[in-house]
Structure formats: structure tokens, C-alpha cells
Amino acid sequence: MSECGSCSGNCSEGSCQQENPQDQRIKKALGRIKNKIVVMSGKGGVGKSTVATNIAVALSMAGLKVGLLDVDVHGPSVPRLLSLQDAQPHMERDCMEPVAWSKNLSVMSLGFLLPSKDDAVIWRGPVKIGLIRQFISDVLWGDLDFLIVDCPPGTGDEPLSAMQELGKDAKAVIVTTPQGVAIDDVRRSVTFCNEVGNEIFGIVENMSGFVCSKCGNVENVFGTGGGEALAKEVGVRFLGRIPMNADVARAGDEGFPLSKLGDHSPAGEALNHIIKPLIDLAGRLQEQKGGEVDSSLPESGDTTLVAIPVAQGQLCQHFGHCEKFALLEVDNASREIKSGKLVDPPAHEPGVLPRWLADKGCNLVLAGGMGARAQSLFTENGIKVVVGAQGGDPEEVLKSYLSGSLVVGENICDH
Ligand SMILES: Nc1ncnc2c1ncn2[C@@H]1O[C@H](COP(=O)(O)OP(=O)(O)OP(=O)(O)O)[C@@H](O)[C@H]1O
């Protein structure tokens, strides 16, 4: 046994077994983060930061608490992608607060700490590893559903260090473009994950076909399907393909998220597809399959306006195909229904119903089946959603909710 002065004697053969304080802080910070996703690519410029940032935004807009950590030390692009170039994290003596992009999304990047965005960082491995450790130990991430880590391309110090620090439960999302040379690089990323022992959550194929904005014709500039074929070959989930689209490049340059392009734009659809398994991973939708429903009413105001989609007078299980909405007003204090009416919704277009119901002052939706994207649009509009509701008559469904006895089952639009 040796003595090292800084510990109380838990030493053997000259090496101190006591965890160093930074390791302890890392462990504590990671203990508050439910899911860790490392976004990586074998090759540069394939759109990894674009994908990482938009996954983070989409998950946060689905109501999940998300941290986005940009560890691309040599080319931190997340601040630009989110229009946060001038943001500065709030610093304390021993820690710093991440920059809040929204209530649900916090961001940290070396880009925030450089005196000028033109400054070049010339650091060797150990310094970069030290920075990544600090970004976990000394940033006040708080409780997160997801930490999304945007790594520089390749299988060098940063992805290795990110995986090692985040631990074996961190999962990789690998971004590629469809052409052969990129796919070869992805194979290296797959081998890397296998060697470090971290699961690959899935592969995203970006810049997959160019959609002509004039004629709609799709040109497969880099080919298509390479990412999907590789995913099949190595036995990992294929998360989806994002087409090459001028709007995506513009969104990146102007710093707004792809979700603003609309639900039914090719990029918006691709993003929905990609985040769906991640939302499932967070267990958000499953929570509502099991039966326990939080039957609280919104805290502001004296009344709550509840919307229930209806077909043939009964709760409609396909939200997008309902014939009418029952709008029922509830007194928040007594939890009693004060009034109710049936109204015709506008023609179903992506994003229309959440906005229309928000304009009507609705703050709670009780639905049967509803897709993940529609749920996130309601959350964005400040409307609480309960999915998987069972029952027939809309007033009875609401009464069950108010009495805490509403039964929820499978969300049949959760596909
Ligand atoms: N699907 C797409 N369609 C059109 N442009 C895209 C698409 N995906 C990404 N881009 C554009 O390609 C460029 C590179 O994207 P991004 O910075 O996300 O790549 P990266 O892989 O993170 O790069 P790096 O290797 O430098 O880290 C950006 O200008 C981005 O807007």
C-alpha cells in the first residue's frame, strides 16, 4: 500500500484507486442524461452537422429535453446552423451554462468560446480530449432525454474520446452519402464502433438524389441506396435518406432548422422518419401505451379548451382523417365540462390542424392515433396531447380524463 496524500488510503501498488474529481463530475453529469447519441461520418462534408443539428431540433420540438454538443474542434458549425454565432455561454468560476436555443434545446460548441469565428484551432489529441471531457464535466447540462454529439469526420481523437467518455451506452448515428467512396469510409466507422464496443443506432443516407425544383425530376447525382445496402449488410437500422435539396443548404447558411421547410417537404419527411426510432428510444410514446395518463389541466387561465377528433360521432382513431372536432370547455377549478360543440376542421394539410386549434385557444388534445410529427407540432404550439385514448363518445372520453380513469392503448398511427 502506498500513500498519495490526496486520498484516504484506498491505494494499491503505487496507483491511487480514488476517482479523480473530474471523473466524478463526468459520472454525475452522465447520470442525468438518458440517451447519448454520437453523430459521426467516415468522410467530411456529408452533412453530419446538418443531420446532428436537425435531429436535436426535431427531438426538442417533440417535447424532449435535448443537449447538442459540437465537438468538431477544427470546424465547429453548429453555432451557424442555429443562428447562434454571437451567443456566449454564461460562465461561472468552475462551470458554464450551455446556450439555450429554446426551452428544450441547450447547445455547447467550441465556436462559442473562440474570440473570432475566423480563428483556427491548432490542437493536438490530448488537448482536444481534455476539451471534450470539460464539455461534459463542467457544462451544466442538467436532466436531458438526449445528448446529441456532433463529431468531426473520421475515426480520430474526437469520436474515440466522445465514445470513451460517454460510455458503452452511447450509440452512434452514422451519416453517409450514397456514392461508393463515402460508403467505404462508413465501413471504417462501423468497424470503429465495433472495436470500441458501442452500438450503432442507425445509418442516415444524406444527399440521396437531387430533386429538381422546376420539374420534380430526381437525379441520382451520387447514386442512391448505398447507405441502405450497407445498413443491411452490417445488420444495423437504416434511419432514412435525405435528398439533396437547395432548401437544405439555404437552411444551413441562414441558420434555421429543416423542420421549417414543412412536414411534407422531402427533407421534412426524411427528418420525421429519422427521428421516429429515436423518439421511441426515449420511451415517450411507449409511456402512453401502458395506461398511466397524466390528467392535469394547463395551469394558466380559468378554463381549458379540449379538442377531440371525431368520426361518426365517436372518438376518431386516425387523427388526420377525422370528420369533426368536439371542442369542450372545462372549468379548471371544478374540473367540470361547461360547454361543448362540434366544429368542421379545415382541409387536412400538414401543420394546419395544430395552428387552427391553437388559434381557437385549444390547450389540450385527446386523440386516438396520431403520428409523431403531428404531436411535435402540437407541442410547438403549446398544446398538450394525449394519444392512444380509448372510448367512443367524446364527452365520455373527456370525463374519463378528468376523473383520472382514461384508458390509453396503442397509438395506431405510431408507424
Ligand atoms: N441534403 C442536403 N442538400 C443540400 N445541401 C446539404 C444537404 N446536407 C448538407 N448540405 C450542405 O452541405 C454542406 C456540408 O454540410 P455539413 O456541414 O452538415 O457537413 P459535415 O459532414 O458536418 O461537414 P464537416 O466534414 O466539415 O464536419 C453545408 O453547406 C450543408 O448546408
Automatic annotation (TrEMBL):
Gene Ontology CC: one annotated term: cytosol
Positions annotated to bind ATP: 42-49
Domain Dinitrogenase iron-molybdenum cofactor biosynthesis: 313-402
CDD domains registered for this protein in UniProt: Mrp_NBP35, MTH1175
Positions in coiled-coil regions: none
Pfam families: Nitro_FeMo-Co, ParA
Tree of life domain: Bacteria
GO biological process: iron-sulfur cluster assembly
Database matches in Gene3D superfamilies: Dinitrogenase iron-molybdenum cofactor biosynthesis domain, P-loop containing nucleotide triphosphate hydrolases
Alphabetical list of PANTHER family matching this protein: CYTOSOLIC FE-S CLUSTER ASSEMBLY FACTOR NUBP2, NUCLEOTIDE-BINDING PROTEIN NBP35 YEAST -RELATED
Role this protein plays: Binds and transfers iron-sulfur (Fe-S) clusters to target apoproteins. Can hydrolyze ATP.
Subunit organization: Homodimer.
HAMAP family noted in UniProt: Mrp_NBP35
Family: Belongs to the Mrp/NBP35 ATP-binding proteins family.
Stated name of the protein: Iron-sulfur cluster carrier protein
Species in which this protein is naturally found: Desulfobaculum bizertense DSM 18034
Source organism phylogeny: Bacteria, Pseudomonadati, Thermodesulfobacteriota, Desulfovibrionia, Desulfovibrionales
